[in-house]
């Protein structure tokens, strides 16, 4: 018995699967290349430059947060359980301000305007990052060594990309096994 010959309708437009696959693979390669590209190390030449880099990171964090320096100083004080600017005024009036730990706006301005003369204490970086909800201050440390700081949300996105890369590799291996190209 003769088999029926399948007729292909020549009036149908071809589906652009080949173009889409090639486009998708190119995009995937670009993304993976970007992930694995390392930044050049930014050399810190001297003490003043190191102080300026940290101050710039803090200024960037403050700007991105939309808060004023006074607001950030108060948030730093709250972070450590120190009195805010308003509470310090009350303590000064009662004479109970002696020996009380506090970050004043005046001192905060010195840290940011004259960082080489008034180096920023390291413990303040934790509070500043928390107050501004920004990782910009610690980025200056990472970039000096050619590194990069990744937030939790960025880390999750990178994890998804790595999972996709693994999926592609597993699919390739399964295809090789099914075609008999690869032997165990």
Write up this protein.
- The chain is mainly α.
- The protein has helices at residues 17-35, 47-65, 69-80, 85-94, 105-113, 122-132, 136-144, 152-179.
- Helix 2 (47-65) packs antiparallel against helix 7 and helix 3 crosses helix 6.
- The longest helix is centred in the C-terminal third of the chain and has 28 residues, at 152-179.
- It is elongated and about 110 Å long.
Q: Helical region count?
A: 8
Strand and helix order: HHHHHHHH
Proportion of residues in β-strands:
under 5%
The proportion of residues forming helix, as a percent range, comes to 55-70%
How many β strands by DSSP?
Answer: 0
Low-confidence stretches: none
Arithmetic mean of pLDDT: 85
Rg calc: 29 Å
Distance between the termini: 43 Å
Tell me the major beta sheet: none
Task: Count up the domains.
Answer: 2
Question: Which oligomerization state do the chains in this entry correspond to?
Answer: single chain
What is the approximate shape?
elongated
Structural class: mainly alpha
Task: Sum up the structure in keywords.
single chain; about 180 residues; mainly alpha; 8 helices; about 0% strand; elongated
Offer a quick outline of the entry.
The protein is mainly α. It is built from eight helices and no strands. The model has no long low-confidence stretch (mean pLDDT 85).
Secondary structure layout plus pairing:
Elements: H1 17-35, H2 47-65, H3 69-80, H4 85-94, H5 105-113, H6 122-132, H7 136-144, H8 152-179
């Amino acid at each position: 018995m003769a088999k029926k010959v399948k007729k292909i309708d020549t009036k149908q437009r071809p589906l652009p699967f080949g173009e889409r696959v090639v486009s998708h693979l190119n995009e995937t390669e670009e993304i993976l290349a970007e992930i694995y590209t390392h930044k050049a190390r930014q050399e810190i030449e001297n003490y003043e430059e190191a102080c300026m880099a940290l101050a710039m990171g803090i200024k960037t964090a403050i700007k991105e947060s939309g808060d004023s320096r006074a607001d950030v100083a108060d948030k730093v004080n709250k972070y450590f359980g120190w009195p805010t600017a308003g509470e310090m005024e009350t303590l000064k009036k009662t004479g109970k301000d002696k020996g009380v730990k506090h970050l004043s706006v005046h001192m905060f301005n010195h840290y940011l305007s004259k960082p080489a003369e008034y180096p920023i204490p390291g413990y303040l970086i934790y509070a500043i990052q928390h107050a501004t909800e920004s990782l910009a201050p610690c980025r200056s440390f990472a970039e000096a060594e050619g590194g990069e700081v990744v937030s939790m949300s960025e880390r999750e996105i990178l994890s998804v990309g790595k999972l996709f890369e693994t999926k592609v590799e597993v699919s390739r291996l399964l295809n090789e096994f099914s075609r008999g190209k690869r032997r165990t």
